[in-house]
Amino acid sequence: MDTILSLRGLTKTYTSGLTALDNVHLDIRKGEIFALLGPNGAGKTTLIGAVCGLVRPTAGSVHAFGLDMAKDWRRARGRIGLVPQEIGTDMFDTVERQVAYSRGMFGCAPDKSRIEEVLRSLSLWDKRSSEVRTLSGGMKRRVMIAKALSHDPDLLFLDEPTAGVDVELRRDMWRQIDTLREQGVTIILTTHYIEEAEEMADRVGVIDKGRVLLVDGKEAIMGRLGRTEAHFTLAEPLTTLPTAIGEMPVTLENGGTWICYRGGDGSGQGKQEVADLARILVEEGIIFTAIEQKESSLEDIFVQLVKDGQGAGV
C-alpha cells in the first residue's frame, strides 16, 4: 500500500525545554484510518500541528504525497484537511458561508454544488442559513468537518472529533468518517475514546511523552500483547499451590481463596492454559465454585503501555 505521509526523526523541543515530540518515525498508508492514542500532553496535537504547518519542528522531516513539507508546503498543505479540537469559526456567520469561505482559503474556485454535497453528507443542508452560534455542540463539530472537507483533501486530520458529543451522535459521526474513507480520504484521528479506535481504525499508534511506543493493526496488537486473566474461587482456602500446576503463571490471592491466572499472548494460549488449570484442579481434588475469565481489551493494552513507558516495537 502506498505511503501518503512519512515522518522521520520528527522532534519538537520548546524554549522551555519541553520535548513535545521525540524522534518520531511514522508512515501513514493511503486510504487507511489511523488512530493515534495517548494521554493528555502526549504530543498528539503537536504532531498534527507539525504536519499542518502550525508548529515548526526542531528536527526531522515531514513528507506528504511525496512532497517535502519544508520546501513545498503550499502544495502539500492544500491537500490536507484539519478538524482541530477547538471549534474555531465565525459564530455569527452562516454555515454555508463559513464552509464556502474555507474552500476559498485554499485557492479553490467557488462551487455551490460541491458545498451543497458536503453539507448534505453531514446532515447540515437544512442548517445552511443558520448562524453557527445557534447550533448544538455536535452540529458545530460537523461544521468544522465540513470546513475541512470543503477543499477536497486527500488526507484528513481529526483531533478529538467526537469530544463533548453524546453517544448517539458519536456513532453517527463514526459512520460518516467511514464513508469518507470509502471515498478515498486517508484519515488520522486522535482520540481519548478507545472504542473509537476499536470501531474504526485499521491501525493504531500509541504515543506518550512525545515518543511513539507502538504502531500496528488492531488484531496484531491483540495477538502480540493480549493477555488472559482468570480467577478460580475455591471452596476451601489453600496455603500453597499444588505442585502439578508447575510453571503456570498463577498466584494464590484473597487469603488463599483465589487461584489467579495471568498469562497467554493473545493467540489463544491463555485460554488453553486456563482449561488445563481447571482440569488439574479437578484431578487434584481441589473444589472451585466459580471461574471468572477475561481477555485484554485494547484499552487494557494502552493503559499498560503508557504505564510501562516503553514500546513493543514500531
Automatic annotation (TrEMBL):
PROSITE patterns, sorted: ABC_TRANSPORTER_1, ABC_TRANSPORTER_2
Domain ABC transporter per the UniProt entry, residue ranges: 5-234
Gene3D superfamilies registered for this protein in UniProt: P-loop containing nucleotide triphosphate hydrolases (3.40.50.300)
InterPro entries xref list: AAA+_ATPase, ABC_transporter-like_ATP-bd, ABC_transporter-like_CS, ABC_transporter_ATP-binding, P-loop_NTPase
Record keywords, A-Z: ATP-binding, Nucleotide-binding, Transport
GO molecular-function terms, A-Z: ATP binding; ATP hydrolysis activity
Cited Pfam families: ABC_tran (PF00005)
Protein name in UniProt: Phosphonates import ATP-binding protein PhnC
